[in-house]
Amino acid sequence: MLPSDTLLVKILGRQPYEPVWQAMQSFTEHRTKDTPDEIWLLEHEPVFTLGRNGKKEHILDKTNIPIIEIDRGGQVTYHGPGQLIVYLMIDIKRHGLGVRKLVTLIEQSITDTLNEYQLNARAKKEAPGVYIGDAKIAALGLRIKKGCSFHGLSLNLNMDLTPFKQINPCGYKNLEVVQLSDYIEDIELSKVQQQLTFHLSKNLGYKNGYKKSYKKDYV
Fold first, then answer.
1. Catalytic residue among 121, 170, 177, 192, which?
2. Would you say the pTM of this structure is higher than 0.85?
C-alpha cells in the first residue's frame, strides 16, 4: 500500500457517469484512516447532473441527454467529451482542512493551471468555480462523508458547449460558459491533466507527491 501522504492519480479515460459515481461512493464508504487519497481523471459521456438541493426549474428545455439526480452539493451542470473531470477522494480530516479551505485550494489549483496559459482566471467567493471575466470555465461540486470528500471539479477544454444553453448552469440564469480552446489552440488533454494534477498535489500538501495509474478501473 502507498504511504497515506502519497496521492494516487487514476487516469480513467472516457466513462459513463453512474458506474463512476457508484464507485466513488463505495470507495468513500469502505476507506479507513490509513487509505491513501485518490483523484480520478476522466471524461464523461454526455449527462446532466442535478445536486441534492437542485431545482429542476433550472433545466430549461426537454432534452435527450440523461438527467441524473445525485448526492453532491450545487445545482445542475453538464458533463461531456472534451471536458476534464477530476474527482477528489480526499481525507480532509487527516489534512486538517475544512470544506471552505478545500474549495479554495481546488480553485487555486485550477487558476494556477490556467495561469500557465497566460489566462487571468479567478474564483468568486459568492459563486464557487473558476471564471475568466464573468464567464465560467470550471465548476465545483463536492460531497463530504466520514470526513472525506468525493465528487470534484470539471474544467472545460474543447467540447460542445451547446447543452449548457439548455440549463441555468449551476443555477445562474444567463451565465456564460467558456472553455480553454476559446483562448488557446491545440489543447492537449494529457498536458492539462498533468498540469492540474501537479498543482492539486502541491496545493493540498502531499509530501510524497503523486503516483499515476492508467488502469481503467475505479478501485
1. 170
2. yes
Sheet holding 67-69, edge to edge: 67-69, 47-50, 76-79
Least confident span in 49-53, 161-165, 207-211:
207-211
In a domain, 61, yes or no: yes
DSSP 57-80: GGB-S--SS-EEE-SSSSSEEEE-
Domain count, the chain: 1
Q: What is the mean pLDDT of the chain?
A: 92
Residue 73 lies in a domain: yes
Cell numbers found for residue 11: 487516469
57 in a domain, yes or no?
yes
Which domain, by its residues, includes 35? 7-213
Classify the C-alpha dihedral 79-82-84-85 as positive or negative: positive
Contacts of 203 (CB under 8 A, 6+ apart): 105, 108, 109, 112
- Write down the residue that cell numbers 440549463 correspond to: 167
**What's the CATH code of the domain at 190?**
3.30.930.10
Our answer to whether residue 148 is catalytic in this structure is no
Distance CA 28, CA 20 (A): 12
